[in-house]
Amino acid sequence: MNERRTAVVVGGGIGGLAAAAALAGRGWQVRVLERAAEFGEVGAGLSLWANGTRALDTLGLGTAVRAHSAPETEAGIRDRRGRWLARTDTAELARRHGAVVMVHRATLLDILREALPQDALRAGVAVTRVRADGPQAEVVHDGGVMRADLVVGADGIRSAVRRSLWPDAPGPRYAGYTAWRTVVTPGRALQAGGESWGRGERLGLATLPDGRVYLYGVASVPAGGRSADGELAELRRRFGRWHDPIPALLDAAVEEQVMRHDIVDLPPLASFATGRAALLGDAAHAMTPNLGQGANQALEDAVTLAALLDAHPHVPDALAAYDRERRPRTQKIAARSRRIGAVAHWASPPAVAVRDAAVRLTPARSALRAMAPVAGWRPPA
């Protein structure tokens, strides 16, 4: 094991904290720099596939996360009237690949943060420049300069590390649709989750461990828009007449808890690593949420990076191996997620009819088989 090597992780989200925990567990001295005034995140629910929970098991945190999560018991795709187009056999999915569980994003962040010593976390630090060559990397921030053997850029889709080291890399692009997210306390237990697809719109539901429901609506609209009378009113206009229990859940929603975000992703980068610096998570491969893989891929990145740093004593060699390992997989998953989103947002009636018929006619075993390349991932030895 390498001892007392130093790392600066830029970004205190899921990927950054997981990378810091993985490195600290292997004897690295780690500092996590977070631009926000405090660690934490205003968020809603997220799905952890078996690949993500296996990564958490590698960190020794899988049991804690499962204790605060809820398994998906029924899922699939319906039309706006509630007729099933495809149902996911969650029991068979769990048997083949492992269960998909729902967890609140804030809960996962708390568990990751608690795995690190408090003196490793520094909030309110804005990184402005990174130099990755030489015997040590250099991180310039608004409070001074830090030097380390390794820099991990886990600072999101608008990554300062990426801008500094890859100034010519393409920036984020709008996927063509916007999402509204909230968590609702239902009047009765949710019987079925999954997504419902309409014409250029869709809505998803999932139960969280405490019985609340994570609800998201997505619509093809111009980027940067805002609703004059509030985002909850917009959600109700778009989805208030869809099938049960959507109207009741929207009636129970609270305006102040509705978040609206344009969905953006990152065009493929030519490399995730240079010198003593590597990109991770959204900073490297931000993807649309259509496969539910954003957090899962960041967790995979984190444990793979740490394992390869063990296997290759020379940091640049380890990061080159990380790039070879992670870039093809994550970019393939990102491209697949983008294609699913494009089909889900078809709007013309003939195209929607063809899409719905194709989904309805796809054998369940084919859908399960298609999940294997994603859910079947195993951490490096």
TrEMBL record:
Uppermost EC category: oxidoreductase
Residues covered by the FAD-binding domain: 7-336
Documented EC number(s): 1.14.13.222
Record's keyword terms, sorted: Isomerase, Monooxygenase, Oxidoreductase
Gene Ontology molecular function: FAD binding; isomerase activity; monooxygenase activity
Protein name, as recorded: Aurachin C monooxygenase/isomerase
Organism whose genome encodes this protein: Actinomadura macrotermitis
